[in-house]
């Protein structure tokens, strides 16, 4: 019993160790722990809206560290403490910018090498304000159109849209009705010139913010141009892909059309067979109950090889007699050996 207890204790210890190792691995993966050596830096920003402690630090899209802390300075600027892998080298020409990580407002800190001295920054150094850039404020961009949205009458917009759809579909009364709705809408906008002025004033603020980000917008436009050129160069491949997809869809449709009659017949025969089984369920129950024993008997008969041994004790021929009564004629028989009556 002592040996059994010792074996159980060893198995329990191994199970606990493996479980703890698995839990720690999952925690390290989902919590995104970093165990390597790192260096600490600081960067000064005018605005860090949306940036939080724990956000990633990236260089060319590759994660190299995390944001460690955010603090407000007396001059209304913000100091961001962040760490990077020990292999990352920052210089006096390095720039820091806050970028959008996803469409729901997540941010990350991006590090880029710009023009400047190649002198290496030591751990604990600070990237000054003139080499940092805040994130674009999309809230201000969308909020600038809010007065215009309030100026529009939903009923007039709906009526205008309905008339346009009806005219294009050939179901409208006249195009003149559509023009009348357009005139009514433009008159409403003319009466709301004050609100439109507010929109323009808000857009001036937005454009000022966009002007500070002109280099980033230029890079985005260049990247979009490259994408369009790449798609243009692959236009034939895209056209072939669409054609092959269309051909595949047609083939699948033809296959389903050919397979429908056999499938319909199979379903019908299955229903018929199920009805027969249900009607004679007693026989099926007895068959299923006796099959295991019959298979066991057959298994014993085949123990000596891939053949069955049979001994003929009696050979009887059954005939139909007068009036349909059965008549049995014994052709052979023996009562010795294995056929000896017990």
Automatic annotation (TrEMBL):
Keyword Transmembrane: yes
GO cellular component: extracellular region
Source taxon at top rank: Bacteria
Membrane-spanning ranges: 12-33
Pfam family name, one: MlaD
Entry coiled-coil feature ranges: none
Protein name: Mammalian cell entry protein
Organism: Mycolicibacterium obuense
């Amino acid at each position: 019993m002592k040996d059994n207890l010792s074996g159980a204790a060893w198995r329990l210890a191994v199970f606990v160790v493996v479980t703890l190792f698995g839990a720690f691995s999952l925690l390290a993966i989902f919590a995104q722990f970093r165990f390597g050596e790192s260096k600490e830096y600081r960067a000064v920003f005018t605005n860090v809206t949306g940036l939080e402690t724990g956000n990633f630090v990236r260089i060319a899209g590759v994660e190299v560290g995390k944001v460690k802390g955010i603090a407000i300075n007396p001059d209304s600027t913000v100091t961001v403490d962040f760490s990077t892998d020990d292999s990352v080298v920052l210089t006096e020409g390095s720039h820091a910018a806050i970028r959008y990580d996803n469409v729901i407002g997540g941010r990350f800190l991006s590090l880029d090498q710009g023009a400047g001295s190649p002198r290496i920054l030591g751990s604990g150094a600070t990237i000054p304000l003139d080499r940092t850039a805040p994130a674009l404020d999309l809230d201000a961009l969308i909020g600038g159109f809010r007065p215009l949205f309030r100026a529009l009458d939903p009923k007039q917009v709906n009526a205008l849209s309905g008339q346009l759809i009806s005219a294009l579909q050939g179901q409208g009364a006249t195009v003149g009705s559509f023009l009348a709705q357009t005139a009514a809408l433009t008159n409403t906008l003319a009466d709301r010139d004050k609100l439109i002025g507010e929109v323009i004033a808000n857009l001036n603020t937005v454009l000022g913010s966009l002007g500070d980000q002109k280099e980033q917008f230029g890079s985005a436009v260049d990247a979009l141009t490259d994408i369009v050129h790449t798609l243009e160069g692959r236009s034939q491949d895209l056209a072939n892909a669409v054609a092959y997809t269309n051909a595949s869809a047609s083939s699948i449709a033809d296959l389903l059309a050919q397979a429908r009659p056999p499938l319909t017949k199979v379903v019908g025969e299955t229903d018929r067979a199920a009805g027969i089984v249900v009607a004679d369920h007693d026989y099926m129950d007895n068959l299923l109950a006796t099959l295991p024993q019959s298979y066991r008997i057959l298994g014993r008969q085949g123990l000596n090889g891939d053949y069955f041994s049979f001994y003929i004790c009696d050979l009887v021929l059954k005939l139909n007699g007068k009036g349909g009564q059965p008549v049995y004629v014994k052709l052979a028989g023996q009562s010795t050996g294995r056929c000896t009556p017990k």
